[in-house]
Amino acid sequence: MTKSALVLFSGGQDSTICLAYALERYARVETLAFDYNQRHKVELDCRLEILKHIPTQNREWGERLGDDHILPLPALAEIGGTSLIGAGEIKMQENGLPSSFVPGRNLLFLTYGAALAYRRGLDVLVGGMCETDYSGYPDCRRTTLDALTNAINLGMESAITIDTPLMQQTKAQSWALANEIGGAALVSLIIEHSHTCYEGERNHRHIWGYGCGTCPACKLRAQGYQEWTAA
Ligand code: ZN
Asked: How far is the CA of 127 from the centre of ligand 1 (A)?
């Protein structure tokens, strides 16, 4: 174990699993989130809770966990036009993508992440991008990430890689992976502190965690949990 990693850590279910995965796999792990005036800052609060609790789960994780970074990206809100930034109900559009899709958001996140990784001397970007959600956001697909990796390394004369442990996982498989990596303690941490709900709802606790229970993100999380526990 010699390589080091920067985890794109938003405080959601998937990025929390990615953080635990990275702490198992890499010698030094730093974390990164973006503040782009998202509708709900609750995710940013949740991630700090998770970072506080992670070292109590596993002593080695605590030793490997390094600095946390938050980069402001207000330009995303300036571009706007989507449900996660500013007003608007989140619904499925005719092109099969939810209205929360922010065009090119992951390209920006990964490019900023690569620049920070370069400065921090980190080898690998770890992200929860997934092709199974909504048939895959186009900027989360592996083909997109491979092309971006190429562009980044050509442009920075670097050898940064992008590790996406959840790429082919269903939500049920993600819960199973969390259990495999960190057992009941990690599953419990995800339920109590990770945030997925598009509505920013944290008053209602379900067996799978907090959320409105009706937005597309809550439905996906609940369905995955039910499938996993039924298996
Ligand atoms: Zn919700």
From this structure: 22
CA of 119 to the centre of ligand 1 (A): 36
Domains along the sequence of the chain with CATH: 4-171 (3.40.50.620)
From the number of C-beta atoms within 10 Å of its C-beta (0-12, 13-18, 19+), residue 12 rates as: buried
Measure 199 CA to ligand 1 centroid, in angstroms: 5
Q: Ligand 1 center to residue 221 CA distance, Å?
A: 9
Q: How many A from CA of 215 to the centre of ligand 1?
A: 4
User: Given pLDDT bands bounded at 50, 70 and 90, which one contains residue 105?
Assistant: confident
Q: Provide the pLDDT for residue 91.
A: 63
Mean pLDDT of the chain: 90
Question: How far is Cα 228 from Cα 170, in angstroms, rounded to an integer?
Answer: 10
